[in-house]
Amino acid sequence: MSEDRQDRRYPQNLQGVLQLAVDAGSAAEGSSPVEPMSEERKTWLRDALAEVCKGQMDEVEQMKQCLAVLHKEEGSGREREGEEEREEDDEDERESAFEMLSELCENLDNARDLMILGGLDLCVSRYLCHVQSGLRWRAAELIASCAQNMPQVQVHLLNIGVLPKLLQLTDSDPHPTVRVKALYAVSCLVREQEAGLQAFLSHDGFSVLMRGMQVENEKLRTKSAFLLFNLLMSHPEQKDTVVSMGMVQQLVSALRTPHSPFHEHVLGALCCLVEDFPQGLKDCRNPTLGLEELLRQRAKELQGKEESQEELDFCERLRLLCFQGQQQSDDNGMDR
Questions:
Q1: What is the pLDDT of residue 88?
Q2: 65 vs 60, 89, 122, CA distance in Å?
Q3: Which residue positions in the chain have pLDDT lower than 50?
């Protein structure tokens, strides 16, 4: 019996603890009687759980230390010798604090704890509008990390008015990385979140996406088109709002720019706008857009390119939805 105990190997981490629990549960389902847990095993389990809890507490302490850095007052208008260098060091320290928080908040429990500690309120009130672009985009990135897949955090952020600030940054910040990270945060707040969508609509979010697809920043164009496509897929009731803005004309115009990976999402959005929606179909068929010839030429260019298969599929689907039925109708009219 003592040899069995010596040969027994205990898990060394949380995943091992969980697997041990699963194995114990599976054994309990069998017909053999369950043996009482030995004192040795009880001691090990208590120690393992204590270590897990200690690790979580350590992470909370790390977050508190990062927030202490971010709460520090900043000097202004100081001209003493060496002050510029100290200000650069201070900015580096704040950026490092944000990076640590973003890493820690990949854990959903930590994201919720950061909200409780007031970290998200600090991001919104001080750092989204900070003069340093490196701190603005890191604040937006942290907001996105915490909001992703966390309804409780999403609701809190919406209640403290973060969405209009993020949309403004997406629309007009002079630094391209800030705009991209702000849109990422917007996406985390509005996808699969009804309250977020309503706030997005009330602040003319679709217009922000339309303008985002017209900039030179490739990442911003791609993310704008992708979010538009995603929202139309999830909320087809918004087609009327989008089409009435002249979105079809803007999307076709975007397809005429030099070929880019973001065209795949543009074509996907156009497919959404014509499917089961007559006004969108009518706009796409407008001869002044020249969409039929554009799609024919694009399909020809994409043939045989494996990396562009999804774009080609959207292209051919849009041609089918818009023009195959129209061509058959025209042919029938000629026959008569």
A1: 81
A2: 9, 17, 14
A3: 1-8, 10, 12-13, 28, 31, 54, 77, 81, 328-336
Mean model confidence pLDDT for the chain: 86
* DSSP assignment string, 91-114: HHHHHHHHHHHHHHTTSHHHHHHH
Q: Give dist(CA 205, CA 189) in Å, integer.
A: 12
Confirm if 307 and 264 have CB atoms less than 8 A apart: no
pLDDT tens-digit series, residues 79-128:
554 566 677 889 999 999 999 999 999 999 999 999 999 999 999 999 99
Q: What is the DSSP letter of 72?
A: S
Per the structure block, which two tokens stand in for 317?
A: 């689907």
Q: Please state, in angstroms and rounded to a whole number, the distance separating the CA atoms of residues 320 and 102.
A: 45
Q: Say how far apart CA 286 and CA 281 lie, in whole Å.
A: 9
What local confidence, expressed as pLDDT, does residue 192 receive? 86
The answer to whether the CB of 274 falls within 8 A of the CB of 239 is: no
3 contact partners, CB below 8 Å, separation of at least 6 = none
Q: Please report how many Cα atoms fall inside a 13 Å half-sphere around the Cα of residue 175, on the Cβ side.
A: 16
Instruction: Give the C-alpha distances (Å, rounded to integers) separating 143 from 43, 155, 184.
Output: 40, 12, 9
pLDDT digits (tens, 9 = 90+) for 237-266: 999 999 999 999 999 999 999 999 999 999
